[in-house]
């Protein structure tokens, strides 16, 4: 099957590739109950050596820069308590950690979580963290531009492989809040 975006000839329903996904992502895809049918969650097998956005888009299509999203883990702190959350913005944007994310989390201070914390808490590889399969108790902050993108390329939980899903999927994920201006 040909992917709806990018130059991928090997797109398959993610539910048919559970063995290639990390356990939390495989569990989320395998138990999918979102408004979008599970067969619209696509997996493309890719080279982990080119997982970083700039190199990846050079290989698979420059237009992907406007159709890809990055998921980062943020730690918000207030009164000695730390809240971990995920933020999803288009690849051409940066997460407004100290503005929109901090305010939404009700934190006094917010920063990117350490690589070790992000990997340990998500069960995913750094550079492949995806909003599908995150801990259900986490807030998921999604920039509205991601939801408005017809098809979005995101991580698959590992550096090998990517998921391509309709942008509107993200508004229905557990803990999701769609925000204007999260990506700057």
From TrEMBL:
Coiled coil: none annotated. Pfam families: tRNA_edit. InterPro entries: YbaK/aa-tRNA-synt-asso_dom_sf (IPR036754), YbaK/aa-tRNA-synth-assoc-dom (IPR007214). Residues 65-166 form the YbaK/aminoacyl-tRNA synthetase-associated domain. GO terms for molecular function: aminoacyl-tRNA deacylase activity. This is YbaK/aminoacyl-tRNA synthetase-associated domain-containing protein. It comes from Streptomyces jumonjinensis. The lineage of its organism: Bacteria, Bacillati, Actinomycetota, Actinomycetes, Kitasatosporales.
